[in-house]
Structures are given as C-alpha cells and as structure tokens.
Amino acid sequence: MRPLAPFAAAFFVFFSTCLFSRPQPPKLIHRLDGYTISITEADSFAKTTLQAAHVTGAQIAVLDRGKVVWSAVFGLRHRSPDLPMTRETTTWAASITKSVFSTYVMQLVERREFDLDEPIAKQLSSPLNSYAPYVQTASEIVRDPRWPTVTPRMLLAHTSSLANFTFIEPDKKMHLHFKPGTQFRYSGEGINLVQFVIEQRKHKLLDELMQDAIFTPLQMTRTGMIYRKEFADNVADRFDSAEKFLAQTKRFPARASGSMTSSADDLASFASALLAGKIIKDPTRASMLHPYFQIRSLHQFGTGTDTTDGREAAAAGLAYGVGWGLLTRTKFGPAFFKEGHGDGAQNYMICFERRKACMILLTNSDNGELAFRPLLEKILGDTVTPWEWEGYTPSYNEASRQPSNRNLVR
Q1: Between residues 182 and 408, the one the model is more confident about
Q2: For FRET with 162, which of 86, 154, 173, 267 sits at 20 to 30 Å CA-CA?
Q3: Percent over 70 (pLDDT), the chain
C-alpha cells in the first residue's frame, strides 16, 4: 500500500478532525404531539418543577417505540446525611403493584391456570371465613346472597363493591356495597383477595411467585414484593409535604395491593417487555387492556356514584380493564396507566399503545403529585390524562402547567 502524499495526508487529518469533532445534535425526546424536546431541556424542566413542588427525590423514565430514551434522577433518597437519589435506588411503588400483579395473573390466565370469570367462592375449597386471615372479617360477606357472583375480574377492575380496605369499615368486616359489577369503587382489599386465592392454589407466597415469573426473567434487580437485604445499600426513605422524614421503605409481607418496591428503570424494563409481548402474548395483553367497565365519575376515590360531572372521564374514554386504568378515546390512541399513592410515595406510569410511549414517575415525597401534570405535559406531551379524576391539579404557579412550544421542533 503506497503512503499518502504530504498534501493528501494533511487533508485526511483535517477531514477526519472535522468529521469526528463536529458537535452532535442534542438527543431528543419525541413527544406524543409531534414536537420534540431536548434531553437537556427535559432535565432542566424536571429539576425546576420538582424543586418548586418540594419533592424530596424522584426518578423519571421515558420510553418511545418501546425503548428507553431518557432516564433521570433528582433530589435525595435520604437526609442527614444527604444521599442522592440514583437510578439504582429502590423506592416504594405503592399501588403500581396492583397492575404488575394483574399482569402476573394474566400469565396464569394465558396458561389456563386461572379463570377470571369463575366466582371467587367457587375457586376456594372452603368458605372464605374458614381461612385464618378471614375468620374475623369475612363472616358477613359469606352470608350476602351477592357474594357467589363476585369474580376475580370484578376484583381486579375495582367493581366488586368492596371498600378499599376492611379496616376502614365501621365494624372492620368485609361488605358488598352494591350489586357487584355495576359500579366502580377502588378496592385494594379486592386485589389482595385475588392474591389469596392464587397463593392457595400455588401453595407459594406471592413474593416468590412474582420473583420467578417476572422480576428475575426481566433482570429487575431493584424490584421485590418484599424488602430484601440486597436493597439496604440504596433504598429511598419517605418524606412528608414539609420534607420531613416519615419512614424507611421496608415492606412486609407481600401484598398485591401495594407492597412492591422498584425503580423507574426496572419499571421501564417491565413496560418495554409488556409492550413487546415478552411477558404475556399480544392477544393476552389485549384482553387485559380491554375495557371491562366504563367510568363516569368525577373523582377516582368517590363512592362510585358521583357521576353528575364526569365530562373529563367521558372525553378520555376512561375505563378499567384487568388491573389497569384505561384511556380509550384520546387523540394519541389508547393508553393504560396506574397510580401509586402512599405515605411519602407518589407515583404514576402511563403507556400509549400506538407509539409504545411511556412515562414513569416515582417519588419519595407526599408532594410528588403536584409535579405530575407539568412533567407529563411538557416532557411526554401528554395532555389527555384525566387530571381532575386523578387529583393531579397543582395549586402552585398555574401558568407552569401549560405546555410551551418554545424551543420545540415539529
């Protein structure tokens, strides 16, 4: 091979330098509305918004076309000494647990190991109040003539008519409050009842079942239905609205209604696999996300009868499937979502099926929900989440909630 002439060699060096040192265009998030926002702007906006809302710590992940395009962390996981939130920090996912559990249930349905429409009473070998966990609480419900009609599908879609939890009932007993399947009433108690039936059938506890079925196969190493010692080096404490310490995040025992801890990255892996048909097959996912019940209420946590002003729900086609909230009529196509709300933990995840675009927000703060609307609108371009129904209506700096097209590219 002949050596390059001096001029040619100099030109080659110059050309190579220009080619490889040329500034690369900023990475972009392609929003649902066709605009883009740079990673730099998304990061800056999230930081400013979370600080303004006094959110102690947060993790955010965004997916597009089923792939993670942005993952970032903000604030603190621990105070005194101050320790930063990291992408490996495990946080309390709270009620997002319900939807991940429901996806596991659909694995069983897919393998014909569980029937969503066979009444719970028939799936147990003995009356519910004969089992130790329900001896004190189920004595009334087993005598209700409507009890034999309650199915797992109703429980997972929050239409069973059970209260959210038995301990809030005046007599601390389980009751059916209307004809099952006819109204929406959010119930963690119902989700835990499905867990109990499955554990009876499988003769295993839920934390082991879900670890084997979902968390280990997807390498969700920062996720568990119960606290594990390997989380100890990086777990998020929880803080109140004044950013004062509330509690450490150590959840026992496994509860399908909300014991899971996770990270935004792990939930992004879960969402990506779900959208790709790697957890359950596409027809099974379609069945899970089929609207079982149309919701017309103004607020999620009403009695189920506040239907006089459900315009927001109607506009979005708000519904519930198997363990997931659904938006069936949006300009971006159908979406599925789940919130997580507990003391010092406020979370949200939403996925739009057509674009396979998702946004996951996990916080260790009672102020987390104050930031959700501006973050979803500005970064994902999500203007269709039912803000009033969810309660995501920040009171601070109303103008900041409006999406701005400044520095956006169509």
Answers
A1: 182
A2: 267
A3: 88
159 within domain boundaries: yes
Residue 52 near residue 45 (C-beta atoms within 8 A): no
- Cis-peptide into 253, omega within 30 deg: yes
Count other C-beta atoms under 10 Å from residue 40's C-beta. Answer: 12
Percent of the chain's residues with pLDDT above 90: 83
CATH number at residue 153: 3.40.710.10
Q: Using CA atoms, how far apart are residues 251 and 172, in angstroms rounded to an integer?
A: 23
Question: What pLDDT does residue 310 have?
Answer: 74
Q: Match 């675009």 to its residue by tokens.
A: 357
Determine, yes or no, domain membership for 13: no
Strand order in the sheet with 83-84: 83-84, 67-78, 57-64, 357-363, 345-352, 335-342, 325-327, 318-320, 293-294
Beta strands in 207-314 (DSSP E): 238-239, 245-247, 261-262, 293-294
For residue 189 the two structure tokens come to 């108690």
Q: Could you give the CA distance from residue 378 to residue 371 in angstroms, rounded to a whole number?
A: 11
Stated pTM of the model: 0.90
- Give per-residue burial for 247-268: e unless 16+ CB within 10 Å, then b: eebebeebbbbbbbbbbbbbbb
Question: Which residue range is the domain that position 223 belongs to?
Answer: 54-401
Query: Greatest CA separation found in the chain?
Result: 97
> Is there a domain that residue 12 lies in?
no
**Locate tokens 């060096």: which residue?**
13
Domain membership of residue 84 (yes or no) is yes
Return d(Cα 264, Cα 266) in angstroms, integer. 5
The strand pair at 36-38 and 293-294 is best described as: unpaired
Helix 96-110 / helix 264-275 crossing angle, nearest 10 deg = 30
Helices (H) and strands (E) in the chain, counts: 12, 15
pLDDT at 24: 53
* The token pair that represents 109 in the structure block: 């349905």
- Count of domains observed in the chain: 1
310-340: buried (b, 16+ CB within 10 Å) or exposed (e) per residue? bebbeebbbbbbbbbbbbbebebebbbbbbb
Name every residue whose Cβ is closer than 8 Å to that of residue 2 and which is 6 or more positions away in sequence.
Answer: none
